């Protein structure tokens, strides 16, 4: 069906005009109600929040509230805000004005003039949900003019109406988000004077352009994100602004390993043909879980979910590189976790003790502990450790076939790998490495550049951490 091109055609088309008489938050509420009744997902692709964050968001949306998401980096705050477009109508008619005025009730001087001059012949544009979403990353250089607007002298001169011309105003981002959603990421980073400029928008729903007797009763849904450390009286938030935001929703990192795995697999860009065994994918998540509990890592900065995503990508890339070089299947092994150390070190903010140890040494320790924790209560490690007790060492080459021949020299390790792995050398070697790395994580072996050897007596017994 052809969409109406003018206001008159819209009125004659039978298009439900009552949709133009409701605000954007009423629209989102109505569409949310339909989704809830139909049992449809509210935020597709968001995992681990079904019992915590999403119910809080549902209540805020049903209550037609402006809200803020508080959480550390890598907790899907921006994705949730962008997902609000899924609660907007597929299309919405508007006048061709900077504020995308409601054809039945324009609020801008341009819109009122257009309607007075053209009447039912006023041309329409049709807005998609994506066009009705505007986003701004807060930075210290953002000005009131950026968000609200100001007089444009050049525009005033061209129109020849003088500086009292209300159509000479250059509107900021918030007015241009009229009839849509406006999101501000990292809200406390806005200068205080800009935060104050948001008071009227949140409290009265309008903006005042400096130096002009112009008030715009905007229909805009304001949503925000922030780091909890900054969103306090001791941080950088202006307290009266905090009071005007209706709801505060706390995000968090995945609390279950299964949720973390779903997120990482959905986001990671993995090469075709690369196979990552389940235990290794779980160990990747285990690195992040352990890092979020480690006192040597700054927990106020957080350990982003981007860490396991990037790490899994490097693990797969390591398997692919080995396969290309040696002409064998691209099957990931625990050694590929160590090849992914740059994905770990680049995403950790260290405390003093962590700085003393060093980012790479700490990352290596986290990998070994994660593999040991993932091994858990599986049997067979004691027999393998006993083989090394006499001071023996084992070197595993890169090539799977050659590495498997070396594993066969260690009878308890070969039995374990045959029982756990498949029929191919690559999967069996991966399980053999898994067992060896588990012994490293428990302080019973030492991993060197070329292989494994018994841990020196002074090293003692390492604590065996368990994944949450």
Record keyword descriptors for this entry.
single chain, about 475 residues, alpha/beta, Rossmann fold, 2 domains, 5-stranded parallel β-sheet, 3-stranded antiparallel β-sheet, 14 strands, about 45% helix, elongated
- Output mean pLDDT: 91
The neighbouring-strand order within the major sheet is 4-7-10-1-11
Helix coverage percent? 40-55%
Instruction: Give the tally of structural domains.
Output: 2
Taking the sheet with the most strands, its summary is: 5 strands, parallel
Q: What structural class results from the helix and strand content?
A: alpha/beta
Radius of gyration: 29 Å
How many E-type strands?
14
Q: What is the assembly state of the chains in this entry?
A: single chain
Spans of 5+ residues with little confidence (pLDDT < 50)?
Answer: 459-468
| Terminal residue distance | 54 Å
CATH superfamily of the largest domain: P-loop containing nucleotide triphosphate hydrolases
Question: Tally the helices: what do you get?
Answer: 22
CATH architecture of the largest domain: 3-Layer(aba) Sandwich
How much of the residues is beta strand, in percent? 5-15%
């Amino acid at each position: 069906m052809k969409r109406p091109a003018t206001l008159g055609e819209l009125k004659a088309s039978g298009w439900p005009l009552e949709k133009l008489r409701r605000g954007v938050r009423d629209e989102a509420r109505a569409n949310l109600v339909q989704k809830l009744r139909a049992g449809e997902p509210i935020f597709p692709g968001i995992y681990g929040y079904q019992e915590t964050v999403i119910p809080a968001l549902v209540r805020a949306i049903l209550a037609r509230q402006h809200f803020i998401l508080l959480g550390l980096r890598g907790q899907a705050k921006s994705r949730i805000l962008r997902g609000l477009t899924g609660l907007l109508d597929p299309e919405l008619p508007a006048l061709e004005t900077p504020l995308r005025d409601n054809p039945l009730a324009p609020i801008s001087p341009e819109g009122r003039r257009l309607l007075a001059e053209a009447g039912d012949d006023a041309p329409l544009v049709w807005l998609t949900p994506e066009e009705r979403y505007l986003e701004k990353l807060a930075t210290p250089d953002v000005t009131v003019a950026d968000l609200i607007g100001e007089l444009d002298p050049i525009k005033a001169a061209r129109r020849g109406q003088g500086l009292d011309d209300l159509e000479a105003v250059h509107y900021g981002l918030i007015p241009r988000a009229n009839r849509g959603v406006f999101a501000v990421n990292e809200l406390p980073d806005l200068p205080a004077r800009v935060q104050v400029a948001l008071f009227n928008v949140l409290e009265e729903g309008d903006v005042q352009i400096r130096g002009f007797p112009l008030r715009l009763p905007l229909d805009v849904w304001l949503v925000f994100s922030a780091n909890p450390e900054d969103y306090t009286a001791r941080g950088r938030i202006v307290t009266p602004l905090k009071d005007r935001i209706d709801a505060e929703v706390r995000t968090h990192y995945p609390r279950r390993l299964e949720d973390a795995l779903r997120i990482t697999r959905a986001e990671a860009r993995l090469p075709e043909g690369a196979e990552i065994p389940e235990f290794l994918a779980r160990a990747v998540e285990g690195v992040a879980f352990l890092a979020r509990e480690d006192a040597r890592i700054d927990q106020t900065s957080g350990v982003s979910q981007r860490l396991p995503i990037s790490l899994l990508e490097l693990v797969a890339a390591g398997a692919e590189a080995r396969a290309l070089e040696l002409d064998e299947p691209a099957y990931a092994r625990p050694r590929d976790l160590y090849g992914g150390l740059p994905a770990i070190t680049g995403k950790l903010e260290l405390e003093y003790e962590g700085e003393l140890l060093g980012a790479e040494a700490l990352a290596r320790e986290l990998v070994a502990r994660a593999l040991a924790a993932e091994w858990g209560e599986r049997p067979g490690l004691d027999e393998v450790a006993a083989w090394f007790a006499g001071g023996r060492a084992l070197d595993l080459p890169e090539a799977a076939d050659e590495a498997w021949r070396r594993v066969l020299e260690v009878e308890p390790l070969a039995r374990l790998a045959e029982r756990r792995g498949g029929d191919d050398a690559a999967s069996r070697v991966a399980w053999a490495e898994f067992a060896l790395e588990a012994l490293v994580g428990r302080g019973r072996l030492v991993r060197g550049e070329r292989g494994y050897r018994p841990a020196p007596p002074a090293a003692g017994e390492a604590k065996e951490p368990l994944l949450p």
